[in-house]
Amino acid sequence: MHIFRGVAAFLAASHSVAAAASTAEQQQQASPSSAPEAPGEKLPPYRHPKYHPSPKRASAVKQAFRISWDGYYKHAFPHDSLRPATNGFADDRNGWGASAVDAFSTALIMGEYRIVDQILKYVPEINFNRTNSEVSLFETTIRYLGGLLSAYDLITGPLKPHFNYTDHQTGAILQQAKRLADNLKVAFNTPSGIPDNDLFFGPPRKKGSKSNGLATAGTLVLEWTRLSDLTGDSQYEKLAQKAEKYLLHPRPALGEPFPGLLGASVNLETGLFENGAGGWGGGTDSFYEYLIKMYLYDSTKFGEYRDRWVLAADSSIRYLISHPATRPDLTFLAMWRDRTLHYFSEHLACFNGGNFILGGLTLDEPAYLRFGLELVAGCHATYTSTLTGIGPEIFQWQDSRTPLNSSNNPGPPADQKKLYERAGFWITNGGYQLRPEVIESYYYAYRATGDKKYQEWAWEAFVAINATCRVGSGYSSLADVNKQEGGGWTDFQESFWFAEVMKYAYLIFAEDAPWQIRADHENQFVFNTEAHPIRIAGGKERYGGWGKGKGEGKGMEK
User: Fold this and answer.
1) Residue 329 has pLDDT above 70, yes or no
2) Is 393 assigned a catalytic role?
3) Euclidean distance between CA atoms 90 and 82, whole angstroms
4) What's the whole-number mean pLDDT along residues 298-307?
5) Is the pTM of this model over 0.85?
6) N or C terminus: which one in the chain shows less Cβ crowding within 10 Å?
7) Rounded to an integer, what distance in angstroms lies between the CA atom of residue 91 and that of residue 80?
């Protein structure tokens, strides 16, 4: 998942909506949903689904990955991102080769050894001490730190028999992750311990922000905890977990309008929440994602994270469920400001179905799983209803239970009434930024059920993306998914295209493997929000002697 400034826009827009609303409408609160199944209802869980690998389709995805990589390597490497239509490049992530690091775990999983060799040779050359641009703690953590840790876990773990790399080569991956974290950790030097997301390097220093977002502060704990587990140096997990405490115990009350569902901004000095607006979309999304994933990572240490995820999940089912007035068969989750709901969502939010499914599998709660499948079906409809077969960046609908045309439930613009009547939503931002969330949720749905329907949905999405986004030396974001040929290319190939879209599209057709999500409580890996698989803690973290005392193992001595 990646931050989209939709939450900030939502905050500003909702102020103007509230000003225009009547007093009664301003005070309108979400009412509990009459969901047919409440969590806690014990139904037969999926435990041993039968999977249906498709080597032909997996190979097609690998070919798209090779095209993307070869174009990047020829025209943009070692810069961050490829501009495929013009064969140019961009340094949008500090010039450290974001696409290379994001592609690392995917190349390993696909068995693309030529590409693995190219990336492994490059990793020790990255100079994490220097950059000419502002550093995002969040983006750098999920892409670079997560990508390096994942590659190390894969190469020194289940893929070790497939490589002849020396301890020095593999140790360099972890050494670079540690070097990067040592530069980033200045972010946590605030009065509260909640990090400043905006940094500068050379030397490392904070920008001086006054607040941080829920997702940007709450999506660090997996990577920083993993780094501590691998190196034996607890400073990293202590920093991230101290910051997370403020999110697990939010204050004041305005920051938690529904149990477990929080506002979007936290003050760096006091640790207090500054508002009560949020959702499962950009700016807040991956905080909820990591709650259940931390419990999956280490159930002995992160029981409180599980409890907070359950609280958020239960409140979402109780208060946020929304069915479009023209398509009551579809299920979406509303956004909120305080306790007033607003009926729009984002491509980014479509990870939520997969997250509910993962929670249902992890906690043996089929009601969560079934609700997750409902959300997956809703997001599937956003793909099948557009001209390109790809879902839009932001969409809106009218809730079936809220008075129509009230201030928080307006109708569609005139030029989209037909779309809304047919599809159950209208488009407020038609762009497609090579986002993975819908295919990601298809992946979780398939791994939970073994239902080939989700493979077909993923294949349809891949075919549509391949047909529309392919241009020049790679694949580009689109201007408008509901126009012919996507409304034109924006000439930008996101680094997370390698890490997420290609990986999830491949895994849903691939053979079973240790990194695949499992339905039987035998998971060996958990995916970070950039889809980098992180090995679950189990006492075997310090591969190759790494992590003795202050992190001086044999992997670093050679």
Assistant:
1) yes
2) yes
3) 6
4) 97
5) yes
6) C
7) 5
SS3 521: coil
Mean pLDDT computed over every residue of the chain: 91
Q: Are 68 and 475 in contact (CB under 8 A)?
A: yes
Pairing of strands 426-429, 394-396: antiparallel
Least confident of 178-187, 277-286, 339-348, 549-558: 549-558
Give the integer Cα–Cα distance in Å for 297 and 266: 26
Task: Give the pLDDT score at 544.
Answer: 38
Q: Which of 153, 229, 298, 393 is catalytic?
A: 393
Q: Phi first, then psi: what are they for 83, rounded to 5°?
A: -105, 95
**What residue numbers does the annotated binding site cover?**
529
Average pLDDT over residues 389-395: 98
Q: Are 368 and 322 in contact (CB under 8 A)?
A: no
pLDDT exceeds 60 at position 520 = yes
Q: How far apart are CA 67 and CA 61, in angstroms?
A: 10
Map residue 346 onto helix, strand or coil: strand
DSSP structure string for 108-148:
HHHT-HHHHHHHHHHGGG--TT--SS-EEHHHHIIIIIHHH
pLDDT at 12 over 80: no
Q: How far apart are CA 277 and CA 286, in angstroms?
A: 15
Q: Which residues are part of a known binding site for Ca(2+)?
A: 529
Q: What is the pLDDT of residue 446?
A: 98
Active site residue 552: no
User: What is the CA angle 311-314-319, rounded to 5?
Assistant: 115
Edge-to-edge strand list for the sheet holding 340-342: 277-278, 335-337, 340-342
The whole-angstrom separation of Cα 147 and Cα 144 is 5
**Contact status, residue 197 vs residue 137, Cβ threshold 8 Å:** yes
Helix (H, G, I), strand (E, B) or coil at 556: helix
Residue 437 is among the residues annotated as catalytic for this protein: yes
What pLDDT, in 10s, does the model give residues 441-452? 999 999 999 999
How many other C-beta atoms are found inside a 10 Å radius of the C-beta of residue 406?
15
Q: Which of 287, 150, 160 is nearest to 230 (CA)?
A: 150
- pLDDT score of 37 more than 80: no
Share of the chain above pLDDT 70, in %: 88
Contact 356, 448 (CB under 8 A): no
Helix or strand or coil: residue 429? Answer: strand
Instruction: Determine which one of 437, 480, 500, 541 is catalytic.
Output: 437
* Separation CA 541–CA 551 (nearest Å): 12
Q: What is the pLDDT, as a whole number, of residue 539? A: 54
| Both structure tokens of 271 | 């640790």
Residue 285 annotated in active site: yes
Q: Which of 102, 112, 139, 244 is catalytic?
A: 139
| 36 has a pLDDT exceeding 50 | no
Annotated catalytic residue within 285, 314, 480, 541: 285
Q: Which amino acid is at 88?
A: G
Tokens read off for 470? 């392919």
Q: How confident is the model at residue 17 (pLDDT cuts 50, 70, 90)?
A: very low
Q: Which amino acid appears at position 190 of this protein?
A: T
- Report how far apart the first and last C-alpha atoms of the chain are (Å, whole number): 37
- What's phi and psi for 342, nearest 5 deg? -130, 130
